[in-house]
């Protein structure tokens, strides 16, 4: 059958405009605010659609030069965000996401409050406030009405501060799921109050160099904790039954003397662990660093808690040529499946027994360990002895990836394969991979945010 001829009117029909407004709102919400606003010139109907569509506003994506949109005389400049949010003539729909990064001077701080508070009243779900850090300038203080925002699910703050006087729980961020705090001024009492209020919090990133006293974290909902604080004498994590990932950054491992995880039965991912912890307690297992002589060693109690058996992914830092702590560390995680190693630069300053692995018959984790990645492999004696032990004893090993700091040549690869005794591997499925150690490598993707400390970058700037 031949199809009927379509009329010119049908060919020219605007099928997109015929879609329900709810679908058009969804489409416009995926566009940059500037592009979404431009659709209002299409017709009177589209002007109505733009005004009610959910918006994602990012002042960093707005050109600093003034561009005039003739249809509504909206100057698309740094003032555009405040015009859209505060002037209902331009837009009346919800503000789903707001990112502000151009308020690094205190004179601009008072103008921020009405923008943030108005967005919070319009269904704000994601808020990012990122200000440059200036030691001699006051930081932006969050308005109290923002803390009561029930729609907020994601909050990222950099260079801001909380008020000393906060609303009592549970009125503070009652539905917040992810909180990122970078270089934020936060007093001890405020931190405890904040965490006790956020009953839905699942992810907490804490990266700051503000001096705090003993920090105790309790949260029934928390699943991921990223901690990179440099000026806390003691971190205690208790009553976190759903915590699955604990990530400790360079600042935490180098400057936080004591870390205690008292109750995290579902912990699956842990790192970075190194010899320079003053004390690390996981359940009833204590890793105590001692200097004998000038070489940190770890002594772990033989107790095996469910928390240690639950750990499947472990990241460690080798900070010495011969790190005697590694065998004791591995012996405490019997169900380990993934081992990531960040190797610091080699040094001749320390010396230790190079035969520590010969004394180990086997480790229980070798029945489960499947993948090993070492970043900074240079082929020295400590690297080779550790990896050779894993090759010869790792019954379940499938892949070892070596991110080499030395130049990779066929001769280098062949020599290292012989030194690692690859022909004596316990697993016939083992694959040994040599790659150049560059910033583009994502083999330690789970720990990428700690490869280059954002905190150090902020301090240097």
From TrEMBL:
Checking InterPro entries in the record gives: F-box-like_dom_sf (IPR036047), F-box_AtFBL13-like (IPR053781), F-box_dom (IPR001810), F-box_dom-containing (IPR055302), LRR_dom_sf (IPR032675), LRR_FXL15/At3g58940/PEG3-like (IPR055411)
- What name is this protein filed under? F-box domain-containing protein
CDD domains per record: F-box_AtFBL13-like
**Spans through the membrane:** none
Q: Which residues form the F-box domain?
A: 13-74
Q: Name the domain of life.
A: Eukaryota
